[in-house]
Each structure stands twice: as structure tokens, then as C-alpha cells.
Amino acid sequence: MRYLSLRNSILTACCLLAASVVHAAPRQVELVYEATRNGQPFATVTETFRQENGRYRIESVTQGVGVYALFGKRRLLSEGEVTEQGLKPSHFELHQGDNDKKSLLTDFDWAQNQLNMQVKGKTVTAPLEPGAQDLASFIYQFMFRPPVGEDVNMPVTTGKKLRSYHYRVTERDVPLDLPGGHFKTLHLVDATPEGEDSKEFWLATDQHYLPVRLEMRDDKGAKIEQILTSVHAE
User: Which of 42, 78, 109, 221 has the most C-beta neighbours closer than 10 Å?
Assistant: First the structure.
């Protein structure tokens, strides 16, 4: 009986801890970034995250500046549940300008463990792996599940396929002075083979592990950097 009582107490404590992880994340977040290409401004990125009644919605809009504005807005949308494990996407969209042919639509069928991706009017399917995220949600999953240890592995859909993202923690407690504020950050480096959309992230450990800086190379080898200029979380 004492063993059962102790076991029940431990289970209760674990459940409360899991719940606290979810509720520790802010209800609403608004982030604005300046994006540069080889040091020259080319876009403004505005992102919003909202959670309410066990559901979440993320929207990311990239608006080009100058000549880049001619390409139209790039919009990412992710919707789904907020669970004890963090974000559980149900639907993802990617739109580029007014060209519907470039739009990607993805549905997460958790009941059938199947990912259904609409690419150029055709349905592409893949087995749905536990903890899978999309391009909009995966970075916000760190609010609920901060990196533990030195390696992070996460299945992520790009809208065309499901691939495994592998990041390595290279630095902790890195101070960054950005237009959006002063932050203590954790530095994540892409550990997947080069040439596969390699990225680096700096997550603010003193601001809900929100992404405050990003670096990557585009398909032409240009350096893309995204720096936080404004943050509002509540």
C-alpha cells in the first residue's frame, strides 16, 4: 500500500510538472525581425503565436523591402493542439505571393498516423512520426520543451516531405545585444548534412526560449540573417 501511495504521488507530481511546462509558455507572442541578405536588408518578418482553450495558431509573414517586395508576401500558418508534450499540429499552409501553384497545404492525420501533403494539386503522404512539427511550429515547440542535453532531434514537414531535423547545442548563456533587447541565449547549430537548408538558431533562455537570431545560406550561397527588432509576450 505504501508503494502504491508513493507511486500515485509521483505520478501526480509528474502530471503537475507536465502541465506547468505547458502553462509556462506565454498566451500570446508577437515578434518582428529584420532579415538581411549578405548584410543588406531585404525583408521584414512578423510572427504571431496565440494559444487559447487548448488550441494554438501561428502565423509568419515575410514582406520584402525594395525590389524584393515584387516577389509578394511569404506566409506560413500552423494550427493545432497544445498538449502535455507541447504543440501538436493539425494543419499547415505555406503561400508565396498570389501564386496558388506554389502553395503547400498539409494535414496531420494523427488517428491514422499519416501526413497528407498537397503539392501542386497532388497528394503526397508519409508516415506520421510522434512529435512531428511543421516549418512554422517547430521553433515554438522549444517554449514547451526546451533543449535537454546536447542534441535535439525533431521530425518536421516542409510541406513537401517529412524530414528529421538534427541540431546540436554548441553554446549556452551567450549574451546577445539586439535591436529587440538584451538576451541570454542558447546556440543551436544544424547537424544535418550541408546543403539541406542548414540553419543556426539563438534561443532566448530568459524569454521563453523564443528565437531571437537565425542564420542560414540560401540556394545561391548567400548568407541570410534574421535579427529580432521587437518582442511582445504575455
Answer: 78
Residue in this structure with the C-alpha cell 529584420, named with its chain if needed: 34
Is residue 4 pLDDT above 70, yes or no?
no
Write phi, then psi, for 201 (nearest 5 degrees): -125, 145
pLDDT tens digit string along 127-141?
A: 999 999 999 999 999
Instruction: List the one residue out of 145, 164, 196, 180 whose CA is nearest residue 45.
Output: 180
Cell numbers placing 5? 501511495
Distance, in Å, from the CA atom of 104 to the CA atom of 101, rounded to the nearest integer, reads: 8
Which amino acid does the sequence have at 22?
V
Side-chain half-sphere CA neighbours of 24 within 13 A: 22
- Position 26 pLDDT exceeds 90: yes
Q: In this structure, what is the dihedral angle of CA atoms 92, 97, 102, 107, given to the nearest 10 degrees?
A: 10
